[in-house]
Amino acid sequence: AQTVTQSQPEMSVQEAETVTLSCTYDTSENNYYLFWYKQPPSRQMILVIRQEAYKQQNATENRFSVNFQKAAKSFSLKISDSQLGDTAMYFCAFRSYYGQNFVFGPGTRLSVLP
Amino acid sequence: DAGITQSPRYKITETGRQVTLMCHQTWSHSYMFWYRQDLGHGLRLIYYSAAADITDKGEVPDGYVVSRSKTENFPLTLESATRSQTSVYFCASNKGDGYGYTFGSGTRLTVV
Predict the structure, then answer these.
(1) How does residue B100 score in pLDDT terms, banded at 50, 70 and 90?
(2) Which phi and psi angles does A86 have, rounded to 5°?
(3) pLDDT-based confidence at residue B79 (cuts at 50, 70, 90)
(4) Domain boundaries, chain B
(5) A37, A43, A106: residue with CB nearest B40
(6) Contact, A99 vs B50, CB < 8 A?
(7) CATH architecture for the domain at B4-111
(8) CATH topology of domain A3-113
(9) Residues 54-83, chain A, touching B (beta carbon < 8 A)
(10) What is the per-residue pLDDT across A25-44, written as a single tens digit (0 to 9) for each?
(11) Which residue of A has its CA nearest to B6?
């Protein structure tokens, strides 16, 4: 069974600075998908970014980018120019290529400080 | 664009009572899921459904029952609520492709 680990339960960053959230996962599969979800205080789950394991290029969405290291089974999220609205829980998630179920990590609570 | 609607948003119930959480989606997505969110565990899969009348267990199914008679609805029933079922419950749906889930806004359930 796949597992997802987020080793940083809480982090903080100053507004406008850059922060990186860590995620590692364990799988024996070669093809799969990885995701980062954001959960602000409103409780809504919001998709931040998605990576396909068979693509070498790291995904980027505006201020959000990932560092995908397939051999190391690492999938970190970098947030540039942090904004107060980035304050949230961030969940890393794994999805098998042939399955539909997600496996989520325990989450990292990020606080952006003014 | 209604998306996924969960109800109620908050619920308090007593130990031993039956309670049903509702989930309705408007996109005709094939797949629907129920997750529970607990501190330190992230989200854990309770049950999922690939289509109407097809359901399967996830990681933590004990004490829960689901049904899916129509594509758009996927209710979750706690047959006899226990305090350990106090949690935030999320419903989600997916077309069955490689993209992410669409989540409902969650139900915070407290069992006293």
Answers:
(1) confident
(2) -80, -10
(3) very high
(4) 4-111
(5) A106
(6) no
(7) Sandwich (2.60)
(8) Immunoglobulin-like (2.60.40)
(9) none
(10) 999 999 999 999 999 999 99
(11) A44
